[in-house]
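Lay summary. Proteins are chains of building blocks that fold into shapes, and those shapes determine what they do. In this project we predict the shape from the chain. Here is one chain we studied, written as its sequence of building blocks.
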Amino acid sequence: MTQIFNFSAGPAVLPKEVLAQAAAEMLDWHGSGMSVMEMSHRGPEFMSIYKAAERDLRELLAVPDNYKILFMQGGGLSQNALIPLNLLGHKPEGATIDFIHTGSWSAKSIKEAGKYAKVNTAASNTTAVPAQADWQLTADAAYLHMCTNETIDGVEYQPDFNDTRFKDRVLVADMSSHILSRVIDVAKYGVIFAGAQKNIGPAGVTIVIIRDDLLGKALPVCPSAFDFKLVADNESMYNTPPTYGIYIAGLVFQWLKQQGGVAEMERRAKAKAELLYAALDVDDFYQNRVAPANRSRMNVPFYLKDESKNEAFLAGAKARGLLQLKGHKSVGGMRASIYNAMPIEGVQALVDYLNEFAGR
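And here is the predicted shape, written in a compact code that computers can read:
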């Protein structure tokens, strides 16, 4: 059978070791006689799974003690609503939320937040992050929202925390598609959230990391099941959480620790991205339209100069076991997502095909 490499942007490739362990434990988890799918979410068996997942994630990201980790239902779209619903309760009517618009996901965030508050797009560019000194921030904004890796557009960045305007400002970051792929300083953010289906586990789980002082600020209309304080006070068990997804996420966290942690994942991410971008940049047969300084290490969109060859390119890729390379419908072209679970061998196989198709 042809070796398969899955470049899907999400739901995405998972480590084979994790899938094998889940398969082995499917019918009987650790002698309990139950599948994880059958366990009570408040029973001792699942609570041990949950506690281990929370502990391992806290260790991997060096999450400070004054932050809570929540495992919630949904994904990035749901959090686009839950963030303002949970952070605007301490602000009077007429509150403003600042946004950095760098692509499709930050655009979705802006649209959703506009239902709850005034929004200010402090900077906008979908191919290069505007210079931070030029960001037009609101002095008393409720918070500043940024998507630090745009899954569709392939823009990645980290803000410069030396900016004095950040003092006492609440920073909210959507890290859905690059969390656990690079070392971050969690303490610089008020809230970090991430859908699981890219670098953590199956679709349906969202991770929220929130500083303690930001809890208890939900708007009165916020549903109780999605009030971050209630979720935190009940250790993510206020209502039934996505138990099997949390279990798989926990196995991924264990796998990451075995591989050497986030620092090792960052080293591998750099190597994979450099290999792929080098092949795309040889000549103009392929094009990546993102400024080199802001190119994503996780999601690499590219275009054929002659787009009449798109279908032939995808057919040839599929024949070689290189799957899910078609770009998002909103932008077209191609996209290779090279998350933590994608081995460098998969990227090398793609590079070999890029060169072959280009006739190099």
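What the prediction tells us: The chain has two domains: 17-258, 261-357.
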